[in-house]
Amino acid sequence: MTAENERFKSYNVVPGPKMGVVTPEFLETIAAVARKHGIPMLKITEAQRLAMLGHDPEQVAQIWQELGQEGGPRKPVGIHYIKACPGERWCKYGRRDSLGLGEKMGPALLSLPLPAKTKVGISGCPMNCCESFVRDLGVFGKKNGWTLVFGGNGGGLPRIGNIIAENLNDEEVISLAERCLRYYGANARKLERTARFMERTDLEKFKAAVLVG
Ligand code: SF4
């Protein structure tokens, strides 16, 4: 591999956006900074974010400053982002406000200490465009409320998550998500994803621990 190719593989800045929602101003800023620094690749990621790829490590601090964001190393594990579909605000099939729930969930979940990478997907209806059944924590909307799914994975060893509860309102689904994650955090092995954890966990015992009332 050439030194040039190594450079392209080694450094990136991922300035957002949250849940894939952008404004013209955000895109204009990205374009201006990318042009100025000769960034060779802008990539929309699976996580609904936009990655600036292929710049030199010495450029990182300046790029973050010009983007008006704080950079710094990413936390190695836990929840890095919440993925959400357009939901009832923007999609004719939407039954629930997935973007609104994502905004509300962020403060409760993003800082939780967790043993492994944890992906979250929120879909506004049972068509599940955010693949809620194959996310560590999945949520999807139906007419009577949110359904919460836990322990899914879409990677090399896929797993369909378990439905933990249905017909939840916003506050109930956020609270239950936090209890599921805290139970997982307290009982999983280091770097054990939720899918593998749920495979060796008794589902009824898990539900008894996280469902209240
Ligand atoms: S999951 Fe439903 S609401 Fe969300 S984008 Fe897909 S069809 Fe629309």
Q: Could you characterize the architecture of this molecule?
A:
This protein has helices at residues 3-10, 24-37, 60-67, 87-90, 98-109, 170-187, 194-199, 203-210, and strands at residues 12-13, 41-44, 50-53, 82-84, 120-123, 137-142, 145-150, 162-168. The protein folds into 2 domains: 3-67; 82-210, Sulfite Reductase Hemoprotein, domain 1, CATH 3.30.413. The chain is globular and about 55 Å long. It has 8 helices and 8 strands, in the order H-E-H-E-E-H-E-H-H-E-E-E-E-H-H-H. The protein has a 5-stranded mixed β-sheet. It has 213 residues and is α/β, with parallel strands linked by helices. The structure holds iron/sulfur cluster (SF4). Iron/sulfur cluster is lined by residues 85-87, 91, 93-94, 123-125, 127-129. Iron/sulfur cluster (SF4) binds at residues 85-87, 91, 93-94, 123-125, 127-129.
Briefly, what is this?
The protein has 213 residues and is α/β, with parallel strands linked by helices.
Features:
8 helices; 8 strands; Sulfite Reductase Hemoprotein, domain 1; three-stranded antiparallel beta sheet; globular; five-stranded mixed beta sheet; 213 residues; single chain; alpha/beta; binds iron/sulfur cluster
CATH homology superfamily name of the largest domain:
Sulfite Reductase Hemoprotein, domain 1
Individual helix count: 8
State the name of the first-level CATH class of the largest domain: Alpha Beta
Low-confidence stretches: none
The name of the CATH topology of the largest domain is Sulfite Reductase Hemoprotein, domain 1
* Oligomer description: single chain
Mean pLDDT: 91
> Which CATH architecture of the largest domain?
2-Layer Sandwich
Order of helices and strands: HEHEEHEHHEEEEHHH
Shape: globular
Strand content: 15-25%
- Which small-molecule species are bound to the chains here? iron/sulfur cluster
Give the structural class. Answer: alpha/beta
Indicate how many domains the architecture comprises.
Answer: 2
Strands of the largest sheet, in order across it? 4-5-6-7-8
Write down how many β-strands occur, each being a DSSP E stretch of 2 or more residues: 8
* Spatial separation of the terminal alpha carbons: 59 Å
The portion of residues assigned to helices is: 25-40%
What is the C-alpha radius of gyration, as a whole number of Å? 19 Å
